[in-house]
Amino acid sequence: MPTTAPRSDPARVSPVATAGRAAISDVSGLASLGQTHAVRVGRQVFISGQLGLGEDGRLVGADDCYAQSVQCFRNVEAILRAAGGQLTDVVKLVCYLTDQANAKAYAEARGTFLDQLPATTAVVVQELLLPGALLELDVTAVLPDPDHTPES
What we know:
It comes from Nocardioides marmoriginsengisoli. Helices cover 19% and strands 24% of the residues. It is built from two helices and six strands. Strands 1-2-3-6-4-5 form a six-stranded mixed sheet, with helices on one face.
């Protein structure tokens, strides 16, 4: 018999901090699909892979990588706000594209949301879990230290 308690179902984790970790699972404007949108550990925010899903949980912009990219960044922005941050806090961005031909549309959308580019990787994959999804973003952010200003 195992002597450790079973882990909680991630869909039921509350946003209450446990041992320095806080699950962010209820974000205004984002569909809840039974997963945690992000986990905040100290000042770090690890965002679950984001697809171009609208508030209703449906894919935005079928066959339109720019529209899906814009929606992905809107979702990331909403999650970061819920975590107490903003897009300027993004330090690492990984984009999974299903077609290299969509790289330009993704880069254009990225440029409208991110003034300063974080460390970035783009990978072409055969397919994503959701049929019709053209890209998925994997994002890590570090929130500012409230005890230090950028000038100090």
